User: Fold this.
Amino acid sequence: MVHSASINIALDTCALAMMALVFWRLVTEGKEHGTRERLLAAALLHAGALVCRVAANIFMLSGLEQPKFLFCFAIVLDACSACAFAACVLTDSDGRIRLAGRLVPLSSTLVGWSIGPCAIASAVDSLVCGIVTLDVAYTISLCVACLLLQRKNEEELARRELEVECAQSKVFAEQMSPHFVFNTLTSISSLCYTDPDAAAEAIADLSGYLRGNIDALSSDEPIPFEKELSHIRQYVALEQADPARVFVMEYDLAAKPFTIPPLTVQPLVENAIKHGALAREDGLGWVRLSTEDRGRFVRVVVEDNGLGGNSSEVDGKQQKAHNGVGLQSVERRLSVYGGSLTARFGEDGGWACVLVPREEGRR
Assistant:
């Protein structure tokens, strides 16, 4: 009996050392993830159970009566630890616990390491009387789960970073449309012969427009509206440099001193020009940009008359383009800053409204 108690103390002490490594790994790990807190709770509870068992076996070695409440308390702690550990294993990619209908299938490796060592230890304990290896086996499961879950979350983080980079590249490709650049360069080439001063001005506008796109896509910080407005004016000037692209651009800027996420209004103006004002065949298209102070928010409206009046028949593809270009990227940018986008498009033209909070009201 004394021999068994000594072995159990040695095993539980080794398990406590492994738990210390798990604690260190979880506490010093830089990246937060949904299962970290649950795994930490499981490890803490199991460590408490190990301390209770070591204390009970020390009482036994000292020839004192075993305090049964320590064993009972250890069983309760391990039961709670097992529940927290199961929650870790069953946590889905959205942070919710589910067994069926998962977004990501359960990892067979994780499930195997969670159950396998404990099943083997249970068989060993039933054959070897007095020695308990289940504690060590469960500790091994926790340690392996910590490593597997960390690797899984690092892979998930890397995947999300790749998705963000792909999304940024897609937005960059949309903003740097080869068709638009080609048309602009063609217009500049024509101006070089007819109006060199206008050609030089158009080159400066193109340079500023491209620089504005690159700066906006490489920064997530809000920018002064005046900077976004300058970007818009450069784009409008480039569009109007082509004599064949006739439209009127109007500004009604009642509110100016505020900040806004980059590339929030410019894509809306671009959308209104390309798929709104220039969609008319009578050359009477117009786009209006207006700003208005609404207390904690600033209201920015972009509207056009492109699909109404004397325009030709509006087909489904044109309507879909007018609805979709740039709106999703604008909504994503605004949502980060607590803003919102409302848009509607029909036979009377397009209308898009941006509400952006002032800095003191931003989340």
